[in-house]
Amino acid sequence: MTALLKTTDVRCRIDEDLKARATEVLNACGLSISDAMRLFLRQVVATQGLPFEVRVPSEKTARAMMEARDIRQRFDSIDDMLRAADGETGENTKAR
């Protein structure tokens, strides 16, 4: 299996206002500009063209994403989370 190493930089000069506005939208989607560019380029290759449209999640989806992040931060592993969901006490549960 080939390791996925980041071996090159991609640079793009854009208007400062566009960068700020795009950063705000991407942050709302849970992405950095670098994350979004990697995602975009992988999809360009996979679909051999412009592949998708990214939008800010709905209010309901954004709340669910925040709840998932909060839950993830309370546990050291998925096993700990599942034990807690089953009512078992896990030793690796993070303190709140």
TrEMBL record:
Gene3D superfamilies to which the protein is assigned, alphabetical: Met repressor-like
Name listed for the protein in its UniProt record: Type II toxin-antitoxin system RelB/DinJ family antitoxin
Keywords: Toxin-antitoxin system
Record organism: Pseudomonas shahriarae
The organism's taxonomic lineage, starting at the top: Bacteria, Pseudomonadati, Pseudomonadota, Gammaproteobacteria, Pseudomonadales
Domain of life of the native organism: Bacteria
GO molecular function, one term: cis-regulatory region sequence-specific DNA binding
Family recorded in the similarity comment: Belongs to the RelB/DinJ antitoxin family.
Signal peptide from the UniProt entry: none
GO biological process, one term: regulation of DNA-templated transcription
